[in-house]
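Notes from the 1:1 (GR / supervisor)

We went over the backlog. Supervisor wanted to see one worked example end to end before approving the batch request, so GR pasted a single chain during the call. The sequence is below; no edits were made to it. Supervisor asked that the structure be written out right there so they could see what the output format looks like.
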Amino acid sequence: MKNSFLILFLFLSVMVRSQVTYDNMENLRSDSIDVLHYHLDLDMTQTENQFISGAATVKFSSLDDGLQHLPLDLLALTVDSVKQENQQLNFSYNDTLLIINLGRVVDSSDVDSVVVHYSGSPTQDATWGGFFFSGNYAYNMGVGFDAKPHNYGRIWHPCFDNFKERATYSFNVKTDDNQVSTCNGILVNETQNGQVTTRQWELNDAIPSYLACIAVAPYATVHQNHRNIPIELYSLPSDTNNLKASFSTLPDAMDAYIDNYGPYRFSKVGYSIVPFNAGAMEHATNIAYPRYAIDGTLGNETLMAHELSHHWWGDLATCETPEEMWLNEGMASFSEYLYLEHVYGYDRAKQAIKQTLETVVKRAHIDEDEFRPVSGVPHQYTYGRHVYDKGSLVAHNLRFYLGDSTFFNGVESFLDQYRFKTMNSEQLRDHLNTQSTTDISPFFDDWVFGAGFPTIEIEEFSSSQSGNNYAIELTTEQKLFGADEFYTNVPVNITFYGQNREKHTVRVVHDSQFATHYINNVPFDPQFVTVNEDVKLAQAVLDDFYEIESPGQLTADYSNFDLDVKQVSDSALLRVEHYYSAADEVDKSFQPYKISNTHYWRVDGIIPIDFHATGSLQYSASGTNSFLDTGLVSTTEDSLILLYREIGSDQWSEYPHYSKNVLGNPNNGFGLIQLDTVLLGEYAFANLDHSVLGKSELKMPSEKDYKLYPNPTKDFVNVSCNECKGSKLSLFNVKGQLIKEDELTQDLTRIQLPDSTGKYIYIIKDDDKILERGTLISQ
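Structure output shown during the call:
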């Protein structure tokens, strides 16, 4: 038998000692006391004075013998009295916790109730949420982003304010006769007494206290119905036309979620329009929705859909602790993609996924101090980018790992099992493992409990004809962005393109760092291969895909690689990928470059022989992309260069067709790399690696004034300098192979070139000191 005194003592002690564990102790309190029902008599006739008064009847049962005290959360209001069957009870209250001395001992399974009379002006959170009075409006937003705990039922009624405790609600709300109150549940009665209107609401579905709500305004009601579910939309009379237009796809959202998540289990769908300027709040059956979002357009349709989806993720099944908020908010954000796919098709959803992915890979680890798992996010980031945005991408990836049938059947049965209960990540993992023939535990280890992202890229491929089809050998490589270990069993879609734009897609599974895949029965000889072009896997890669028919500028949406097509005689198929992971290291035995450890690009496709485009890449050690190039241009841009290789197995070398535009200041860490010609291949930023050279080892060109001419050239090149006797010139091909090495025996030396044409990298050394390096073109 548990000791209720001990539970209360532990709860109070931990509240004082450590706010971090407050939420877990809140849940512990619910292990000894079960709140069954709240009945709230509220007087909202003095909202112009930002004042409310009420009587809260709290019906509860004890789960242990010997309960003598009832602790309730109530924040910064005045407690006028507490009664039990009209008997005054003693209590203590410190503006945060109300501890009621019960008039009798309550034993296990006993049901009792108290009535708390209270009044005051409810508070607001410093950042987001609370109780608001604005003009003719009074309303609550049920969480506080800064508050500990985040649950904000306690700002307007006494309650057990945690994610675990659930109770049914009823409301009697008095307002002036020109005002209308809306609450959770169904309106069961409305009476008029002089200039006071009383509306009675009942919610028979048990919810946590943060999902309880009230809104008061001169509302008109728009009544609708879909799939026999009542819909009630509340707005000012002048806003009803805009409201109906902006909510015209609400039935589509309901269909998307009912068809994929299971039945809608609440008594109605409701939205109350409020003048809140920073989002919405998913109060069960009566969502507080911002007035700015009903402008007569569908510009905020995903916000409408997001809040509705909480009636599965958050309201029906609720995260056990705030550290598991991704199950509420990440799944609701994923539901935005599901809504867009249902209404407009997957291509529209893919656009939203890529926009979210761009935000996450560029900002989440910066804004929230580090790469974080979506489970276990600390208090200050409960409502941050990892929870909402990365959480949505994790859910999207989970769908791809499992496949649609297993995923949607699994989450529907999970929501049914945990309806009107709390949930956590381990429970979701274990449940899905019962629904799938594939062990989903590695996915949760990598994506839910692990930080960062992988990237999967094509290293090389070859094809051989086999009857009327082709057999493909394909090597893929995994790299990491903010993760510590390689991801396991990662599915990716590989798409092959033929010369005539034929297309064939297969799914492969990548494990560890490198993987080789043998793919048979491709019905054409592939000329171009892509990985994950459908973005069914959200990895740390952003891309732009073009079908180019005519010259013109192509401003990148996601890849940060702008193109200006100068000539194209036939259509071109071009994909530009921006990889957010370390570029492969340079072989410093022949090229002393420090290459970017944060990002690089790949350009690939099918282009006609006369295709010509220029390009522009931005480097930055400040602003939105500041983390990308800080290690290369944090103090000066003088040494920044652009490296290139044709395929992933080649060595890097400096690209010969570019110039650098420092945009007026070579020390601000910001500028452009402008490509005179864009070739298919990989590109990365780099600078001279002084850990190899040493600052004293690189002599300035002015000391010996090296010149190589002509360049481009044919057959030979002249090397001139001041006092260059004893120096040595080494010539490398683009794969990093040493082709030729000659001593410079005089101040003007003619070097015979190899017979093959192409691009070469030259390095001039004196002993082991590099004096000059550059690119030479042999025509």
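Supervisor's comment: The first strand starts at residue 33 and ends at 43.
Batch request approved.
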